[in-house]
Structures are given as structure tokens and as C-alpha cells.
């Protein structure tokens, strides 16, 4: 393997960081013992910049090239997401009925009947004295639970070089 640049990140298919490398798991390193690496990444990923600095944390993340909206070190996205009402696609919920003829005039505590026996069982929208129907007429949908928001992935170890050639800026 060729000599890496200090701060170079590579993926490895084994379960440890090789000598001269550290896992990209967000750990804090002392500045005094890692001055070359600190001079390149500073506190981009965290740390106080005096005693310590933090390595990038790629656990559960996919790396992305920087751009104007997302500078180096920006953490964007989430592993799990609970949809808000505004994120749901437009859709309909069917209204349930019982398969018998109706016999009640009021919707309060009742459900809709498949066949009406009295034309007065409905009221115009916005009418006075509206009351809720029984809960089983139109039920709740969804569980309000987060869902996985991750693309398909293959798990590998991301490691950052602690030692190696110092990269030239030109």
C-alpha cells in the first residue's frame, strides 16, 4: 500500500484500524500528539482546539463532497424520520358503513348505515349543532413512528490516516 497523506480517509473491509490510522468514529484526539493532523482538519469536526480535536464521525453516514450549501464538516440528514402531515402525499380515507339499514337520525355515537331509512339523517355542512360520529366511522391511520431514511448500504470501516506524507497545497 502506498504511503497515505495525513488526514486521508480510506475504507477498509476488516474490523480494525491499521497502524497509523484511526477509525472515523468521532473520537477526540490530543492536539499535542497529533499536530500534523490537527493542522489539516483543526476543529472542523469538533473539539476545543486547545487540548483536543475531533475526528470525523462516519458511523451511519454516507460521505458527500462539499458545496456552497454544505461545507466540510457539515452534518446533514437523519437516519430515521417521522413524516409530518405536510409531507404525506394527498390521499383519501374511505368512510366505513355498517351493512344494515339506518334507524338513527343523529350521527352522535352512531356510524353511517349502508342504506338510509330516513332522508333527514344528514345535515348540510356548517349547520348548527354538529356532533362527532362514533370513532369507528373514520379511524386513525398510521402509527406516527419514524422510518428508516437510509439508502441501501454496505458496512465498511472508514479510517483516517494519522501518519504519512503531509499534503502540499499547490
UniProtKB/TrEMBL annotation:
Residues 8-61 form the Phage tail collar domain. InterPro entries: Phage_tail_collar_dom, Phage_tail_collar_dom_sf. It comes from Pseudolysobacter antarcticus. Pfam families: Collar (PF07484). It comes from the Bacteria. Gene3D superfamilies: Phage tail collar domain. This is Phage tail protein. Signal peptide: none annotated.
Amino acid at each position: 500500500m502506498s504511503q497515505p497523506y495525513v488526514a486521508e480517509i480510506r475504507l477498509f473491509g476488516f474490523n480494525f484500524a491499521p497502524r497509523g490510522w484511526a477509525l472515523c468514529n468521532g473520537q477526540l484526539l490530543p492536539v499535542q500528539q497529533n499536530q500534523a493532523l490537527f493542522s489539516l482538519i483543526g476543529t472542523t469536526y469538533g473539539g476545543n482546539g486547545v487540548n483536543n480535536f475531533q475526528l470525523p464521525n462516519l458511523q451511519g453516514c454516507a460521505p458527500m463532497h462539499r458545496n456552497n450549501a454544505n461545507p466540510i464538516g457539515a452534518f446533514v440528514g437523519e437516519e430515521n424520520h417521522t413524516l409530518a402531515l405536510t409531507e404525506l402525499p394527498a390521499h383519501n380515507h374511505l368512510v366505513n358503513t355498517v351493512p344494515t339499514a339506518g334507524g338513527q337520525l343523529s350521527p352522535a355515537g352512531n356510524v353511517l348505515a349502508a342504506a338510509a331509512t330516513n332522508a333527514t339523517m344528514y345535515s348540510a355542512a356548517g349547520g348548527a349543532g354538529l356532533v362527532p360520529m362514533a370513532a369507528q366511522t373514520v379511524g386513525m391511520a398510521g402509527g406516527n413512528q419514524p422510518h428508516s431514511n437510509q439508502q441501501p448500504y454496505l458496512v465498511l470501516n472508514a479510517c483516517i490516516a494519522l501518519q504519512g506524507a503531509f499534503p502540499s497545497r499547490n
